[in-house]
Amino acid sequence: MEQPLKLTTEQQRIDRFQRQVKSMGFRFFLLKKLPMAWLAGLRVKHLSMERCETTIPFKWLNQNPFRSTYFAVLSMAGEFASGLPALMITRSHSVKISLLVVDLQATFSKKVTGKVTFVFDEVPALAQTIQDAVESKEGRTYQATSIGYNTEGEEVARFMVTWSFKAKS
User: Fold this and answer.
1) How many C-beta atoms surround the C-beta of residue 92 within 10 A?
2) Domain ranges, ordered by start, for the chain
3) CB of 50 within 8 A of CB of 42?
4) Lowest-confidence range among 31-35, 43-47, 58-62?
5) What kind and span of H or E run contains 36?
6) CA–CA distance, 127 with 42 (Å, rounded to integer)
7) CA 107, CA 130: separation in Å to the nearest integer?
8) Which residues 6+ apart lie within 8 Å of 141 measured at CB?
9) What CA–CA distance (Å, rounded) separates 140 from 134?
């Protein structure tokens, strides 16, 4: 007797993506696809359909001449906090969706000399924008805000990343 094809739902694809991010294989993914993130020590602390948290350590490789974390390293971690949920959601759809950063704005409020955790807690709104792009078959943009906190819980940086989404035909 032939087994019926088991179709994967969006939620099953999201669950699989979250498991992959938590696995050791994700570090190899970083090494292969984002080697600077791997070298800098970027880590995913939390990923769900509500929020994403990424961390970046302060270390010799990540510092600038002023003995603080280089802004580009912070930018990478800040962008990744909204980019990872965007990737998770676009990969969960049955249609292919292109995603692209089209703008980046940042503010730096405190010198960074330790580990920073970036929090992006707008995943439901991001998911709705992506869904709108799929349903309309037109491009949509979303400005995602990720906020970086030092170990004392003080805001040190804020990144506003504008993402563009479009379903491929």
Assistant:
1) 21
2) 10-167
3) no
4) 31-35
5) helix 35-40
6) 24
7) 26
8) 102, 129, 162, 163, 164, 165
9) 9
Phi and psi at 122, nearest 5°, equal -115, 30
Domain 10-167 has CATH 3.40.50.300: no
pLDDT tens digits, one per residue of 148-162: 999 999 999 999 999
Full-model pTM? 0.86
The confidence score (pLDDT) of residue 8 equals: 61
Q: Which two tokens stand for residue 18?
A: 């979250």
Q: How many CB atoms lie within 10 A of CB 161?
A: 24
Q: Are 79 and 161 in contact (CB under 8 A)?
A: yes
Place of tokens 């880590």: 43
Q: Are the beta carbons of 118 and 54 closer than 8 angstroms?
A: yes
